[in-house]
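Minutes, project check-in
Item: structure for the 481-residue chain
Input as provided by the requester:
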Amino acid sequence: MVDWAFRTASELTAALRRREVGCVEVLDWQLARVAQHNPRLNAVIVLDRDGARARAEAADRALGRGDLWGPLHGLPMTIKESIDVAGLPTTSGAPALRHNRPAVDAVAVARLKAAGAIIFGKSNTPLYTGDMQTYNQLYGTTNNPWDVTRGPGGSSGGAAAAVAAGLTPLELGSDIGGSIRNPAHYCGIYGHKPSYGTVPFRGHVPPAPGAEAPLDIAVLGPLARSSEDLALAMGVLAGQGVWPAAPAPSAGRRRLADFHIAAWLDDGDFPIDASVLAVLRRAVEGLRQAGASVHETARPGFTLAQAHEVYYALLAAALGAGLSERSIANFRRRLPTLSPTDQGYEARFMRGVSLSHRDWLALNERRHGLQRHWARFFERYDALLCPVMPTAAFRHDHNPDVYARRAVVNGRPVPYLDQVVWAGLVGIAELPSTVVPVGLTAEGLPVGLQVVGAFRQDGTCIDLAGRIGRLMGGCRRPPGY
């Protein structure tokens, strides 16, 4: 029997078109994988077996007539639970939304279906997609397939775990603070955060069902086991007129030596753990040996700390838009008690949610300044290589006080929320970023590398990530799967 579990989406769709395998057969294979491995992972938390099988049967009949629905014809896949799929729950892990079953698909989901995808389930997410771990009261905890004592990241943690374990070939996730990128890094797969506005966000919770995103860094994007799959999915998700149907390699760049690459692998204010940094440095050295020129001193004209200050304040302001008036009033009452020198995350959050419109505008202008620096930087470089997170996947930590949680970097405890710094560096500027798996730590945990490009140069990010992945080994099968 052919093992379809770790075929890429591109390979599966090609086999389906050639009728080497049937749509029902591939769906049944995926459902069997879920039955076998999901109990240990709890990655896929909603299944639509009957609906998916009926659509797979219809897909087989269509192929028999020579009728091709689109580039994803017959491909079974899952969707992050926080994204609307008609008739299935969209709760974002919140008990208050346990009965929310949207009548229509999110725009991105509708595009996937129109291209022929078969949605057979949904994957787990933290409460309101607000954590770097994936657990909630409704669906429980998702584990990392590389080590079930550790989390798969968040908030697209169920998505990444499912892709990494071969439970689904393709996923649709969301990202505002690394929610596609950090799970891809922790689980050893590919993930793409598109340029803002490339993929419609409507149909995601939060914000409230039916509302639009509160901050223009929130995006939807694909997770997969190859860069080709990311390009395939983006060709569908972005829609006509935004993305070419088959994104070509970066114009005029046939070899790695043709790219102008910068690397920012570590930072004194927010250091990377030595176990992760060693893998990133091996990737850069591998690029050099393959003929690439990588500049490790190039920077976009501001510090990581400056970018993080702007990012976290604007993120807090955006999250505050969903809080009750009572909560906001409580934060404002507590503001005078804060020391001006208190730069802890709780104090930063309180200041962010309490911003006046005038102060928000001034902060947003600082963000535009960062974007101008990036634009000038990408006049000289095609891509920036940087970390996703300072550590590899960490052990479950469900302390309800997020501000009391700690990560350990180079043997030293650091604030838990420091882990969003490198993701925010990219997100605050609305830039595209592709995560490519580049190896394992000495403990056997995956490490991903961010390939960041200029605004709307998503194809360059995916193309270069693919070249790096092929050089460094790409996506690997976790032991036992």
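Outcome recorded: The radius of gyration is 21 Å.
No further action items on this chain.
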